[in-house]
Structure formats: structure tokens, C-alpha cells
Amino acid sequence: MIYKNRYIFYLILLLNGCGFYSFKGSTPAGISSICLIPITNNTSDFTLSNLINEKLYDELLNQNVYNVSDIYNSDSSLEIEINSVEDNSNIYSASDDSYEVVKQWKLQVAVKMSWYDIKSSQIILDKKILEWALYDNSGLDVSIDGIDNDSDGLIDSEDSDEYGTSREAALRITSDKLINRILNELISNW
Prior knowledge:
By secondary structure, the protein is α/β, with parallel strands linked by helices. The chain has helices at 2-18, 46-63, 166-187, and strands at 33-36, 40-41, 67-68, 76-94, 100-117, 122-136. Helices cover 30% and strands 32% of the residues.
């Protein structure tokens, strides 16, 4: 009888401890709202700053981790600076004239994120992030290019986010990766 009661006691302790678990991650103490400062773009590619700005705002609202507010009513502010957008050759092939031709490109984007605690005037997080996506040189729609553009193991029709012209899709995929990394930084390691 004593052993049965002990098991019930341990079961109650276990269930009680699990009741406070959350999948949202954790947030810094005293931070419940965030203000998104307009993105600083130090490149000539303005499509990317628009993609990041719109999607980041939407994702913050959808995930409901922080209240998105203006600078006067926020506990913190998030500044994002796009420092580089580079198209680097990734795979070459030989042409009929024995010249090398770029067959596949790697779009790399470097971003700096700075998260400030407004009340205490301190930097919470200051981090550089680099993300990339692949695209081919054919100008085809990426849904038929035979490349795993976002390195998720899915190719073309298997992958719901592979659509559009090559470089535009690479920009969209890279912006999605950047947003996921930024959101993970905002809710982890506290």
C-alpha cells in the first residue's frame, strides 16, 4: 500500500511540474513589447528590406510572444541592418566554346540585428546573421529547376516555397531564413 501511494505521489509531482512548460521559449525579464525600427539597407537591393520588414512584423504578431508597439509604448526596440547582398558563383559548367559558364548561383545576405532594452538603455542582443539560397542561371521558374533552393531536402514540386523566377525566389527564401533566425534569437537563451 505504501508503494502505491509513493507512485501516485511521484505521478502527481511529475504532472504538476509539466503544467508550467511552454513552447514559446523564454524572454528577458521585464520585456513584453517590442518596437520594429525601420530597416536600414546598406545595399542597392531594396526588395529584400521590404520582404523582411513585412514578414517580420506579421510573424511577430502571429507568434504572439511580444506585443508589437510604437517606440513610446515599448519595452524594447529591434533594429535590423542589411549590410550585404551578394550573388556568388556556386557551380560552373563548360560551354561549347570551352568557356566556363556559371550554372548555379548562391545568394548570400548579411544582416546585423540589435535588440535594445529601452527602459534600462542597454543592449540585449547584438548579432550578425548570414543566410543564403541557391538559384540557377537559366532564368526558369524555381519550381522546375531541379535544385533544392533552400536546402530543406525538398525539390521543386515537393517544396511549397519554391516558386517564382530564380533570383526573386532566392531573395524570398533568404528573407524567410533570416526572419526565422531573428525570431529564434528573440525568444531563446534567456
